Amino acid sequence: MRSVVARAPGKINVYFRVGPPREDGYHSVASLYLAVSLYEDVAASARTDNEITVSLNPASTSVVDPEDFPLGEDNLVVRAARLLAEHTGHVAGVHLDITKRVPVAGGMGGGSADAAAALVACNALWGTGLTREELGRLGARLGADVPFALSGGAAVGLGVGDELFPLLLRGRSDWVLVPASYGLSTPKVYAMLDTLRHGVDVPAPEEVDPELVQALVVGDLGRVADLAANDLTPAALALAPELGPVLEMGDRAGALAELVSGSGPTVAMLVRDGEHASQLATQLQDEAGVDAFPVHGPVHGARIL
Ligand SMILES: C[C@@](CO)(OP(=O)(O)O)[C@H](O)COP(=O)(O)OP(=O)(O)OC[C@H]1O[C@@H](n2ccc(N)nc2=O)[C@H](O)[C@@H]1O
Ligand SMILES: Nc1ncnc2c1ncn2[C@@H]1O[C@H](COP(=O)(O)OP(=O)(O)O)[C@@H](O)[C@H]1O
């Protein structure tokens, strides 16, 4: 096999509770992840030398400024390929070409999706034969959200978000995404949350609200809208106050709920169905002049195309 393409989804956090900082700098979380229909593709091609190289496909320019995108050793796809090679003892090079659609530093786990796609693509290209579970354990060493980008679907995430409990949903939910023209750094948003909470005792979260889990499983969108929550919202708003009007815009335009996705700044608006999603996205574009587009979830995790 000379070349293979893997695809992995972005995510939104329908619910996200954050505990106090731990000694390793991470926070314990309780996350309700939903993989949505916005995908990253990673094409892996065999190299005859032992180099691991990366490029950004020109089709990505609508979501990423090539000048701002790291194309060296710190790119998550390079780190993923190197980790797989080291773990398996495989000796061979690979070129990885990324087609990005998920906003960079947008709170939608685009980098994690790239890492997950790179693990799946290299595992197939090199014939290293790791199971999904083994890839998940390796992925957790690259980032807290990488195991979920591998599994996809919907899941409760505990620990730092990497201990997954998959959920089988009976139907899909539809969302309108409003991406921002700027990014927010995940560590800075967590640090801002700690600052805002200074002097306040916060327990480590132990579960996702079971009523919300049940509502999402059966597709009770009204209850999902009532119970959806994200502890990182005040921190994202403190760093990017312009998010406030975007959230209000969704409310005024009739979304069922508006959420900052993860650490932001992408806003996810829950809607009734696919038709409502198209209508709301058009309305936000026409009346407010913002970029807005429909997605739905759950969708599959990282897989070969
Ligand atoms: C906030 C969330 C919600 O799903 O997603 P994004 O908004 O980034 O997409 C995640 O917790 C982000 O996960 P991910 O982006 O994989 O984080 P990592 O690369 O592992 O960590 C980046 C940094 O975020 C902070 N971090 C991350 C996860 C966590 N449970 N506690 C943390 O404090 C740490 O400062 C860490 O150094
Ligand atoms: N393949 C990659 N795709 C996206 N970001 C990457 C990648 N490799 C490294 N990064 C770095 O990770 C940072 C955050 O990544 P991203 O996953 O897009 O955001 P978020 O954590 O908000 O979901 C970016 O600012 C970028 O510098």
UniProtKB/TrEMBL annotation:
Domain annotation GHMP kinase N-terminal: ranges: 75-153
UniProt-listed Gene3D superfamilies: 3.30.230.10, GHMP kinase, C-terminal domain (3.30.70.890)
GO biological process entries: isopentenyl diphosphate biosynthetic process, methylerythritol 4-phosphate pathway; terpenoid biosynthetic process
Signal peptide, first to last residue: none
GO molecular function, one term: 4-(cytidine 5'-diphospho)-2-C-methyl-D-erythritol kinase activity
Domain of life: Bacteria
Any Pfam family hit: GHMP_kinases_N
Residues that bind ATP: 103-113
Pathway(s) of this molecule: Isoprenoid biosynthesis; isopentenyl diphosphate biosynthesis via DXP pathway; isopentenyl diphosphate from 1-deoxy-D-xylulose 5-phosphate: step 3/6
Active site positions, chain numbering: 11, 145
EC number: 2.7.1.148
Swiss-Prot/TrEMBL catalytic activity: 4-CDP-2-C-methyl-D-erythritol + ATP = 4-CDP-2-C-methyl-D-erythritol 2-phosphate + ADP + H(+)
The GHMP kinase C-terminal domain, residue ranges: 213-286
Keyword hit for GTP-binding: no
Keywords on record: ATP-binding, Isoprene biosynthesis, Kinase, Nucleotide-binding, Transferase
Family, as annotated: Belongs to the GHMP kinase family. IspE subfamily.
Role description: Catalyzes the phosphorylation of the position 2 hydroxy group of 4-diphosphocytidyl-2C-methyl-D-erythritol.
Record NCBIfam families: ispE, PRK03188.1
Protein name: 4-diphosphocytidyl-2-C-methyl-D-erythritol kinase
Organism this protein belongs to: Zafaria cholistanensis
Gene name as annotated: ispE
